[in-house]
Amino acid sequence: MVRKEIKTCSLEYMQVLTQDGQVDHDLYPKELNEDKVKEMYHLMVLLRTMDEKLFNLQRTGKIGTYAQAKGQEASQIGSGMALKEEDWIIPSFREMGVFIARGADRKKLVQSWNGDTRAYADMTKAHALPTAIPIASQCLHATGIAWASKLKKEKSASIVYFGDGATSEGDFHEALNFAAQFQLPVVFFCQNNGWAISTPTSGEMNSETVAQKAFAYDMNAIKVDGNDVLAVYKATSEALTRAREGQGPTLIEAETFRMGDHTTSDDSSKYRSDELKAQWAKKDPIERLQNYFKAIGTWSEDYKTWVEETVAKEVEEAVEGGLSVEAPTYKQMFEDVFEGEMPWMLKEQQAELEAELQEIEQRSQATGGGNK
Ligand SMILES: Cc1ncc(C[n+]2csc(CCOP(=O)(O)OP(=O)(O)O)c2C)c(N)n1
Ligand SMILES: [Mg+2]
Questions:
Q1: How far is the CA of 3 from the centre of ligand 2 (A)?
Q2: pTM (whole model) above 0.85
Q3: Is the domain of 315 the same as that of 338?
Q4: What pLDDT is recorded for position 117?
């Protein structure tokens, strides 16, 4: 009879910047400098301002459902800035910041939130996939894209974004298993914001962390302070470098908090206390960077005002441009699904819809336009 220990696992947690702006010099990413950190700050303020604007546009009936990123700026900008042009972004539905960091056309981001899928048309050329609403399904797409990259011997990595809720889905585990089995160049980036709509993380899983789930697949894993843009940048850069160099996948858990509701169809005051929101407000990722600039003596009110004014103009232009695009016709929704010839079943559906619309139109004319 033999009884012995065959495996022990340990997990690292990383924070580079404390909330009061003190930096750990040993962990500060070497490739960063003050200009780059100022760019991070600019983009985080841009994301928050755009987020507030889009939220207000939904509230005034100008756009449909909106999912706020407020509170998650460091996770999105920090990881987005670690990406190279050739890397693939596979998002869920809350990642506007990653696209902002990638330099995506801001007008198109607004256009996409206005429900116009044509805004996604050039995304694959820019190595990005459109929004995925079915939770965790995009994890499999990421593993597939990374597998293709490996077979083609490309030096690019894929990064897939998902929430804590997604880790309860089978798709997430299948994606991790095959990514590890084939040592694929993919980074699984979980923004653990503590809630899957109204279900707290403790109601979703028995494990203490999301990151530890990687142990089952013998995969690299790390947990980071998701409100610390420097830690997120560092962990993501390291994971992407490992992926590009053939050292396999990584699971990153970024611990953060969504300050707003799940979407504009939700009311988080029904399930989250004011005390909890106040506790997390003290960990605001944008304020943390301000504290950093103050600590190193490069902060001024003039700089703050300059960023806010620049960003306000950028958002105004994005909204004006994004909302002024003429709405697509019903017919067009069938057209961007497949490249080349449209498959027979879509042609049938398109014809069916056209016939139905004509019938409605005829009925409307017969009743003097009262039955539209
Ligand atoms: C397969 C699937 N099941 C259920 C839903 C409904 N749904 C939409 S968002 C959500 C919770 C997602 O939580 P999480 O993964 O933590 O992401 P977060 O919203 O916090 O960014 C659920 C269950 C869905 N979109 N897809
Ligand atoms: Mg969540």
A1: 40
A2: yes
A3: no
A4: 84
